[in-house]
Amino acid sequence: MSTKIALKDVYKAFGPKKVLNGVNLEIKKGESLVVIGGSGTGKSVLIKSIQGILQPEEGSITIDGKEVTNLSLSEQEEVTKKMGMLFQGGALFDSLPVWENIAFGLLHEKKMKKSEAKKIALDTLKQVGLAPEVGESYPSEISGGMQKRVGLARAIATKPEIIFFDEPTTGLDPIMADVINDLILKCVKEIGATALTITHDMASARKIADKIAMLYKGEIIWSGTIEEMDKTDNEFVKQFVNGHAEGPIKMEF
């Protein structure tokens, strides 16, 4: 498989605080990589740097072999069109009906006709297990689990090459979390996308990952398959995966 996304020696700081501290990472085309790590380890900054929202001070980020740091606005827009995103809190527009939330990228990036975009939005709703009539509802009128499904529908509606998932199961009960994990697997495989998920939910990570990487203090300290993770001698990974208070990772208060 060819490499879809590659980061080499990426550094990002905010004032004196170093958030990414020489990140090296490679994601193959069509692969689902899950980055695990505690709060404040730099997971969100990692995604924003790949998306071009943040510019690293040093290092290289390539997509399909092309350098994507320091692009012009028009070049950045072309790269962004390849991407979809499921946000942690759903991030739906309260003032728009569900179908228009899903069709947002189709209408504003692809400049599609409203009737055509609506048809795709309603078809995408079916893909995430929701009835077409939900499309006429507003986000405030549907449950948290349904909002998460709508967020997933929006992420896949443009058939992106790359999808980012930011804590996709946060705030969901275990059954709904598992439903979302199944939908992520199904939808990503159907459109052949490359997926990058950040989470600290190990049940979710185990279900959707082809590979797992652990980010700690701004560095990727380990990466491998689920099987390799379960056999690793890395004390940081073992502590995080098993949720132990004792170990090399110390909570900062």
What does this protein structure show overall?
Helix 7 links the parallel strand 7 and strand 8. It contains 10 helices and 10 strands. The protein has a domain at 3-82 and 160-241: Rossmann fold, CATH 3.40.50. The protein is of the alpha/beta class. It is globular, with a radius of gyration of 18 Å. The protein has a 6-stranded mixed β-sheet, with helices on both faces.
Short description:
The protein has 253 residues and is of the alpha/beta class. It is built from ten helices and ten strands.
Strand content: 25-35%
What's the name of the CATH homologous superfamily of the domain at 3-82 and 160-241? P-loop containing nucleotide triphosphate hydrolases
Overall geometry comes to: globular
* H-E order: EEEHEEHEHHHHEHEHEEHH
Strand line-up of the largest beta sheet: 6-7-8-3-9-10
CATH topological fold name of the domain at 3-82 and 160-241: Rossmann fold
Profile the largest sheet: 6 strands, mixed
Q: Helix proportion of residues, in percent?
A: 25-40%
How many helical elements? 10
Q: Decide which structural class fits the backbone.
A: alpha/beta
N-to-C terminal Cα separation, in Å? 43 Å
CATH class of the domain at 3-82 and 160-241: Alpha Beta
What is the CATH architecture annotation of the domain at 3-82 and 160-241?
Answer: 3-Layer(aba) Sandwich
| Unreliable parts | none
Average residue pLDDT: 89
Tally of DSSP β-strands = 10
Radius of gyration, CA atoms, in whole angstroms: 18 Å
